[in-house]
Amino acid sequence: MKFYFLILLSLLILTYSCDVPGHKTTIAFGSCSHEFDSAQMWSNVLSHNPKAWIWLGDNIYGDTEDMGVMKSKYDRQKLRPSYQEMIQSLDVYGIWDDHDYGVNDGGKEFPMKVESKALMLDFLDVPSDAPVHKHSGAYQSYLIEGEGIKIKLILLDTRYFRDTLEINTDAPPLYLPNEDGSILGDEQWSWLEAELTKSSADVHLIGSSYQLIPNDHGFEKWGNFPGERKRFFDLIVKTKPARPIILSGDRHIAEFSSIEPEDLEYPIYEFTSSGLTHTWPTKRSETNQYRIGELIIAKNFGILQIEKQRKSIDIKMMVLGQNNEVLQEILAKY
Predict the structure, then answer these.
(1) Do the domain assignments include residue 84?
(2) Which residues are within 8 A (CB) of 237 and not within 5 positions of it... i.e. 6 or more apart?
(3) What gap in Å lies between CA 289 and CA 251, rounded to an integer?
(4) 215 is in which domain, residue-wise?
(5) What is residue 170's predicted lDDT score, i.e. its pLDDT?
(6) Which end of the chain is more exposed for a tag (fewer CB within 10 A), N or C?
(7) How many structural domains comprise the chain?
(8) What is the pLDDT of residues 132-150, one digit of tens each?
(9) Domain assignment present for 2
(10) Using one digit for the tens of pLDDT, what is the confidence trace for 77-131?
(11) Rounded to whole angstroms, how far apart are CA atoms 37 and 242?
(12) Is residue 16 included in any domain, yes or no?
């Protein structure tokens, strides 16, 4: 009898110990880093001991069709000692926005996009046999194995296939809705649906270089292509990925946004972090009906702390500043 009691006790201890909380998986990300700016924050990022760093675009300010110039700027960014220390310590993933793509607010018309893609993937040390090398565009996906959790990272290419922006020549906003245009293109949409449908990950981080949920400002955003924005939310409702969080950059600000589409039983969050080396020169207000908390106008990077509890997964999202101070934080609730 004592023997069976000891076996039962051992099984209870084993079950309990396998589900004890307290082990966090930290993911760091950011965007908009000028390669000539010496005020980088890589030591701050490293101090949080992240498992991975995610670039969300404007990783350099290339703004050129000369690929020699582009490469020299990537080299300057990559060879910075503090950045070298970081990439030797953790995994690095990334996607571009416009300035590292090659042209401000650029889309599919950019003539050097194939060559620019090759330089970006080289900067990121993407292995030569990775799927991204075999298709048009730079969209990618990865599975990050955290502390008892699986994190799916999906990086969307919002440049390579994007149709023309409708410019407003009369007054703000800068752009008008392009009702029929595409951001992702058919091939990437099919890929995204497959990635979400087949995924059994616990958390889904979806990287978009510019903002998807915020829709009130007049600059670059998914709302400039309203059909694409609706298609994204419809796809999330259809595939129902666990714990979807959009990561975005571009704006030289930081903020949290949230939306709850009909027929989805949990919210979609967006965490915008930008920029690493520069922000707005003056403070001003900006409407965002989906914002949680305050608009942050300061140099910043983002941290996600993902922790498995006994019956849930906690995701703390934090905006960190130049002195590693927490500028704002929220807990994602699912």
Answers:
(1) yes
(2) 261, 262, 263, 264
(3) 17
(4) 24-332
(5) 87
(6) N
(7) 1
(8) 999 999 999 999 999 999 9
(9) no
(10) 999 999 999 999 999 999 999 999 999 999 999 999 999 999 999 999 999 999 9
(11) 38
(12) no
**In this structure, what CATH number is given to the domain that contains residue 136?**
3.60.21.70
Is 328 inside any structural domain? yes
Structure tokens at 126: 């993407």
For the chain, what is the HEC assignment? CHHHHHHHHHHHHHHHHCCCCCCEEEEEEECCCCCCCCCCCHHHHHCCCCCEEEECCCCCCCCCCCHHHHHHHHHHHHCCHHHHHHHCCCEEEECCCCCCCCCCCCCCCCCCHHHHHHHHHHHCCCCCCCHHHHCCCCCEEEEEECCCCEEEEEECCCCCCCCCCEECCCCCCCEECCCCCCCCHHHHHHHHHHHHHCCCCCEEEEEECCCCCCCCCCCCCHHHCHHHHHHHHHHHHHHCCCCEEEEECCCCCEEEEEECCCCCCCCEEEEEECCCCCCCCCCCCCCCCCEEEEEECCCCEEEEEEEECCCCEEEEEEEECCCCCEEEEEEECC
Place of tokens 């084993």: 14
At 71, list the tokens. 């490469």
Q: Which residue has the tokens 């390579």?
A: 160
